[in-house]
Design goal:
The protein has 168 residues and is mainly alpha-helical. Helices cover 89% and strands 0% of the residues. The longest helix has 36 residues. The N and C termini lie far apart (73 Å). The model has no long low-confidence stretch (mean pLDDT 76).
């Protein structure tokens, strides 16, 4: 009986490690910013020209039709942007705390803790790694936001000019 419970715990920990690895892959390979910008710009242009295409068939009814279609398509586009960056919408820090708490309860209730100590140490390392991933992702998001707002462009141009001067 004790062996089966230990096997279940070790299996759950192995599954957790696989999930953390999958999340790392998602975080390391984000969708390029230019893809999102291109999609958004194309959609805005298409929606801007839609009333001209519908005017002959719908007359003044083109206004509510265009408004409805715009609302639906822009909503789908926003959902797509949210799906591209899943770590922003998930409470990962809460998940990590819950997992850590559950593991603490399992270890505390276990009579023979010796076999699980090594596993919990590696899980704690994975927890710290997950927290580091979250922090790195937040920094990346802040950098993207600065670039989108034009804040980082001047310093980027200075860095490019400095590297060009070094090459010359």
């Amino acid at each position: 009986m004790a062996g089966t419970r230990e096997d279940k715990v070790l299996s759950s920990i192995a599954n957790l490690n696989k999930a953390v690895g999958t999340c790392e892959k998602l975080l390391r390979y984000p969708i390029p910013l230019s893809y999102t910008r291109h999609t958004s710009r194309f959609l805005c242009c298409w929606l801007g020209l839609l009333p001209l295409a519908l005017w002959d068939d719908a007359g003044w009814g083109v206004i509510p039709i265009t408004a409805l279609i715009s609302y639906l398509l822009l909503g789908i586009e926003e959902i797509g942007v949210q799906i591209e960056e899943p770590f922003d919408s998930l409470p990962l820090e809460d998940f990590v705390r819950d997992i850590e708490k559950d593991l603490g309860n399992i270890i505390a209730s276990r009579e023979d803790v010796g076999s699980l100590i090594k596993t919990s140490i590696s899980l704690t390392a994975n927890t710290k790694m997950a927290q580091a991933m979250i922090a790195k992702h937040k920094k990346r998001q802040q950098k993207k936001a600065k670039i989108q707002l034009g804040i980082g462009e001047e310093s980027l141009e200075k860095q490019l000019a400095a590297s060009g001067a070094k090459d010359a």
